[in-house]
């Protein structure tokens, strides 16, 4: 440190008085520059607060200095300093000026980074360096002084602008700001699956003592481990992600909105931040020290960090991070499709797995037909390994494709909902007679409110230019059954699944002019003030029905 140590321990009010009263002799040109430099350094050094965590912003290559004083009063005055780098490695040192050389001090814990402490100081020297550290680990220095002493901390970042947190305390008997780590702070990987990793770690002594104010938070990402929660916050911000307020507040779950970027279940809080560089996931598990991380990608390396967090002070301590690679996903079973044959597939919504179908073309032109029966399904079709279609389907969907003889098509289906989905699939040469009937522009059923009576309702639906058979069915339901009936309806099922008493009528209908291809029907013999579910089935030449969207209508209570 290139400065006169006179300015290190001269009290600020004496310096100001000396400057104002001109009691110092005018220096020469070289000493005048040194005077100005030292004066600048003193004014830009700050007193470090005792018992509080201080955030310090560092500019690249510009050292920043903080002071604190240990006064006489006890035989031995203990103190500790904890420095947490929040991004890049930094250098920091502790200097002391004492009237006596009686001093004891040691680093609380070390890392693979470099640190050095002087075990003794020369008697003639008034100022000595008692500790020096370079790295990005959380480092704590504990010392003890037998006389009044003035200390200076100097911090320097040589890579880029950054920030750190510093905690100084001279009260080592009233507890810890930071939660304690166990003797063995490692995270153990106890299970690895295709999409899951199970972790366990030893309990923090702080959890056992202050269970209601301490919790564990787990951070998962695909890049590297983090040595502090402060470093994790900085990384998320710098990657362009939107930092949830909970991470800035040590992942406290009490300030989150349930519908925001989190999952809250069984007292576990999970937040997912997505960016182009990857995904960072934070999961707070309360005081549970075992957790299975779900929804991971197969054959991917993940890094896991556990932080024990004090919810009252927002201070945290980091376990030693670990990493694991998920297992490779086994090759999915592939089902062969045959010309003209209809296959119905039920897709598991919870596991979100792909169902694969393969077809080898015997004609240059082919047509895939998908009829969505329930839920929501994503379709991905490839030809000889190249994608030709990718779409979420609803209702009835055709894909007409052209290629060469013996081209291999692979169809992958996946439910996009958490509930199970179902879909019918058929492939056939393009010139074959279509399996499904010609469809109208809309499959909605319309009801006329003004034509409702206490015992009848009037409904209408669109037809086509092709003469087809239409059958109408009704079902009496209760108010609390409406949502379930509409959500659970199997749109692929035909009238054979209905009770005979529910059938109202069947009729044939078509019109060459699509503008007039509309038909109406008045259903009589209904009960007053009652809800009814109406369905219309359209039958084509092949006899396979297409179900219109169900319509719920309530008859008038009084007429």
TrEMBL record:
Organism superkingdom: Eukaryota
A Pfam family annotated for this UniProt entry: NDNF_C
Range of residues in the leader sequence: 1-21
Domain Fibronectin type-III span(s) in chain numbering: 232-329
GO biological process annotation, one example: nervous system development
Alphabetical list of InterPro entries matching this protein: FN3_dom, FN3_sf, Ig-like_fold, NDNF, NDNF_C, NDNF_Fn(III)_1, NDNF_N
Keywords from the UniProt entry: Glycoprotein, Neurogenesis, Repeat, Secreted, Signal
GO cellular component: extracellular region
Protein name, UniProt field: Protein NDNF
GO MF assignments: heparin binding
Compartments (UniProt record): Secreted
Gene3D superfamilies: Immunoglobulins
Function according to Swiss-Prot or TrEMBL: Secretory protein that plays a role in various cellular processes. Acts as a chemorepellent acting on gonadotropin-releasing hormone (GnRH) expressing neurons regulating their migration to the hypothalamus. Also promotes neuron migration, growth and survival as well as neurite outgrowth and is involved in the development of the olfactory system. May also act through the regulation of growth factors activity and downstream signaling. Also regulates extracellular matrix assembly and cell adhesiveness.
């Amino acid at each position: 440190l290139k400065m006169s140590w006179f300015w290190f321990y001269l009290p600020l009010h004496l310096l100001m008085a000396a400057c104002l009263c001109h009691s110092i002799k005018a220096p020469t040109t070289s000493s005048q520059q040194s005077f100005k430099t030292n004066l600048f350094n003193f004014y830009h050094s700050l007193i470090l607060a005792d018992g509080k965590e201080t955030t310090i912003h560092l500019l690249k290559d510009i050292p920043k200095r903080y002071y604190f004083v240990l006064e006489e009063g006890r035989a031995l005055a203990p103190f500790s300093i904890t420095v947490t780098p929040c991004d890049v490695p930094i250098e920091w040192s502790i200097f002391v000026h004492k009237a006596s050389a009686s001093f004891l001090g040691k680093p609380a814990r070390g890392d693979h980074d470099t640190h050095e402490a002087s075990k003794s100081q020369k008697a003639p020297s008034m100022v000595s360096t008692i500790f020096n550290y370079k790295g990005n680990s959380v480092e704590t220095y504990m010392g003890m002084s037998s006389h009044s002493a003035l200390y200076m901390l100097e911090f320097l970042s040589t890579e880029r602008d950054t920030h750190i947190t510093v905690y100084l305390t001279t009260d080592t008997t009233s507890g810890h700001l930071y939660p304690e780590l166990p003797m063995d702070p490692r995270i153990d990987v106890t299970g690895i699956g295709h999409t899951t990793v199970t972790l366990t770690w030893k309990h923090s002594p702080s959890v056992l003592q202050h269970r209601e104010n301490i919790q564990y938070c787990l951070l998962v990402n695909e890049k590297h481990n983090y040595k502090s929660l402060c470093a994790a916050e900085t990384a998320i911000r710098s990657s362009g992600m939107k930092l949830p307020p909970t991470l800035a507040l040590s992942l406290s779950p009490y300030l989150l909105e349930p519908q925001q970027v989190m999952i809250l279940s069984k007292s576990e809080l999970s937040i997912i931040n997505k960016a182009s560089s990857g995904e960072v996931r934070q999961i707070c598990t309360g005081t549970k020290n075992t957790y299975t991380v779900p929804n991971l990608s197969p054959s991917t390396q993940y890094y896991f960090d556990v932080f024990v967090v004090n919810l009252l002070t927002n201070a945290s301590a980091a376990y030693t991070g670990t990493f694991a690679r998920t297992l490779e996903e086994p090759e999915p079973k592939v089902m062969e499709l045959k010309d003209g044959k209809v296959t119905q597939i039920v897709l598991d919504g919870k596991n979100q797995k792909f169902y694969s179908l393969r077809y080898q073309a015997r004609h240059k032109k082919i047509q895939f037909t998908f009829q969505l029966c329930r839920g929501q399904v994503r379709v991905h079709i490839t030809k000889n390994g190249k994608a030709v279609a990718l779409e979420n389907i609803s209702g009835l969907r055709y894909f007409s494709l052209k290629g060469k003889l013996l081209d291999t098509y692979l169809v992958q289906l996946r439910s996009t909902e958490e509930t199970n989905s179902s879909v019918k699939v058929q492939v056939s040469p393009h010139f074959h007679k279509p399996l499904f009937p010609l469809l109208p522009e809309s499959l909605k059923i319309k009801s006329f409110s003004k034509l409702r009576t206490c015992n009848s309702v009037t409904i209408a639906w669109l037809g086509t230019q092709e003469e087809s058979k239409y059958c109408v069915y009704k079902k009496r339901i209760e108010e609390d059954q409406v949502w379930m009936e509409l959500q659970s309806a199997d749109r692929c099922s035909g009238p054979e699944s209905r009770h005979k008493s529910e059938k109202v009528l069947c009729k044939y209908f078509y019109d060459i002019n699509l503008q007039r291809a509309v038909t109406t029907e008045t259903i009589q013999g209904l009960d007053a003030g009652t809800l009814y579910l109406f369905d219309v089935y359209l039958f084509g030449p092949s006899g396979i029905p297409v179900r219109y969207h169900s319509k719920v209508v309530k008859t008038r209570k009084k007429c």
